[in-house]
Fold this sequence. Notes:
Elements lengths: L4 H8 L1 H6 L1 H9 L2 H42 L1 H10 L4 H20 L7 H20 L2 H14 L2 H21 L4
Amino acid sequence: MCQDLSLIANVMGLFIFLENPTVKKSRENKKPNESKHLFYVQTVYCCMLIEIAKWTVFLFGLFIILCGFLMLFKPQKARTILRLFASTNLINYTEITLRMFIGIAFIIYNPFYKYPSLFNVFGWFSFVTAIILFLVPRKIHHQFSLKSAEIIKPIYFRFISPFAFIFGGFIIYSINLI
């Protein structure tokens, strides 16, 4: 996976670091072996972040599938959980921060998906909505989740649970684990 170093460097934004005048100057003053070592460390760092992003996306796909099972077998519990969204500051900001991290993971791992443009849009959508939700007052976010829980009856949760299975499975399939 880490053969295309220029692609990885672009994904992680290291080109900004490498083009920094201070970094360029320090590279010029170093011996050739030290410069190669710096590049090697940066490459290992990129590979590590890409692996973390891959497994974050995998766990998110698994989480979506587990939510599908919850909606299918315990729809009232799923409705109760939906009502709890943004009910406290801790729940609200944990939910938003996790959404932002998942969006970043989708963006970082983007070049390696089977459908990169689709997941790029999803990653940026998730990241931007997290930023917007950080700006929205918690009470408004909580009111939205309460209204959604009122509209979505337990039987509707059972109807939409197959979509969670399909979406979570599609995410896991698109990761290219093999």
